[in-house]
Automatic annotation (TrEMBL):
Keywords: DNA-binding, Transcription, Transcription regulation
Presence of the UniProt keyword DNA-binding in the record: yes
Residue span(s) of domain HTH gntR-type: 12-80
Protein name, UniProt field: GntR family transcriptional regulator
Organism expressing this protein natively: Amycolatopsis rhizosphaerae
Coiled coil: none
Molecular-function GO terms, alphabetical: DNA binding; DNA-binding transcription factor activity
């Protein structure tokens, strides 16, 4: 079963954190069409957040075409990316390992989490600007 995380100091609204986690999980193939999300009650109790926050996230997922609620059954993933081949999976694992190695080196170089986050955010922003 998929489990949500909540980072209270992130500055990102809780409902958006939930939405982004589902989007990432779908992109990475961790959630697929037909997978059931935890109930609103389960998420609210586990993360100690207001159930209305979870409802708002699930409504947003519905609006984005990623999940659909079924009365009395729960909320299910309806959208997914194309199936990844073994080659795709291997390449993603290789890329992830490279990023993890970079993060380890950054930590060894004395960078704290905030500095690492700033570098990654800046590079990602610049990359997005270049590919427009």
């Amino acid at each position: 079963m998929f489990e949500f995380r909540f980072e209270s100091g992130s500055g990102v609204p809780p409902y958006l954190q939930l939405v982004h986690q589902v989007e990432r999980a779908v992109r990475l193939g961790a959630l697929r069409a037909g997978d059931r999300l935890p109930t609103v009650k389960e998420v609210a109790e586990r993360l100690v957040i207001n159930p209305n926050t979870v409802l708002k996230a699930y409504r947003e997922l519905d609006h984005r075409g990623l999940a659909k609620g079924r009365a009395g059954q729960g909320t299910f993933i309806v959208g997914e990316r194309r199936a990844m081949t073994k080659s795709d999976q291997a390449r993603r694992a290789e890329l992830r390992a490279g990023l993890e190695a970079w993060l380890t080196e950054a930590r060894r170089a004395g960078l704290d989490t905030g500095e690492i986050d700033a570098i990654l955010s800046t590079v990602l922003h610049d990359f997005r600007e270049e590919t427009k």
